[in-house]
User: Fold AAA family ATPase from Streptomyces rochei.
Amino acid sequence: MTLTYLDLSEEQQDLLRDLSFDGHHLVTGPPGSGKSVLAAQRAALLALTGARVHLLTRSNLLRQTLAVHGGVEVGTVHAWIHAWHRARTGEPAPRAAENWFDWPELFTLAAVDERTEPSALVVDEGQDLPQPFYRLCRLLGVSVTVFADECQRITDTQSTLDEISAALGDCARHQLTRQHRTTRPIAALAARFHTGGTAPVLPARTGPAPRLRRYADQRALVSQLVGHAERHPQHTIGVILRTTRQQLSLYEHLERTAPRLRSQVYVGAAAEGRHRTLDLRRPGIRVISRASAKGLEFDSVFVPDVHTDSGDPGAAALRMTYYVLLTRAREEVHLGYEGDREPPPVAGIPDDLLLRAV
Assistant:
């Protein structure tokens, strides 16, 4: 369901009013502060001015969740760059390292691009895009509004807020402070993994404590997931795993055990078909990767492979990853592992923050 302006909090409404239609804007806020909802609202408002508006994300799965009306074109950054390049040269944009582009060649083309059609970009999860993308936008002369949180940078091609501002040039900054997604117990556990400055204020809404469970094998995990889905038939359940192999193995096990649940799996590498597109209108189990989790939310979140993270639990990259994973949940968090010992990311977390399941 798409939220309307009147559904927004006072802080969110004030922010939309403060965003002028001209220039570049960078909006920051913690997980659950409504950045994706506001990105959609911002795009719709810009479209009313007559501009050709594109609402862009890095993630194809996040793109599927964004519902915008009023002539806004929703797509991925990769698709938008290819379309721009093809319209001028007849060819897709040249690729380079890390599945991105030959940026110097794109800069050269942008410098001589004489098209002057009014256009605007709204970018969600902008911290996951490389700095050259923002430089390209500046060269093209398009107005850009970026929604970002640098405490959620878990991709290889990422930008800090300062890097985004520097690449765009004259960029006004705006900040959201309140999060509206998670419960207080989930937010308190997520705060253990927060990096950077002061952690967001804990919400007042209460709920079950996050739980940690040891799984003897995949059958134990499947049994818990099936039971949880049957007890909560109207809930969305996100199972977030590290690798595609884990995703497909779990999905196949769920299909054999409980086909009636009609579980879904999203594989970013899939070209098309049921593994590439999810039916986001119905509840149930969705098996996704960590890389695809950004910007999404679920009633319940399961992260059953904590044992695969054996690195330094204090490392910023690992902390950011768990901060993102935990803050996808609206109501419940279930962490799990295999083996005899609690994995480093959760070992030592007190029971009042992370309840050990029997």
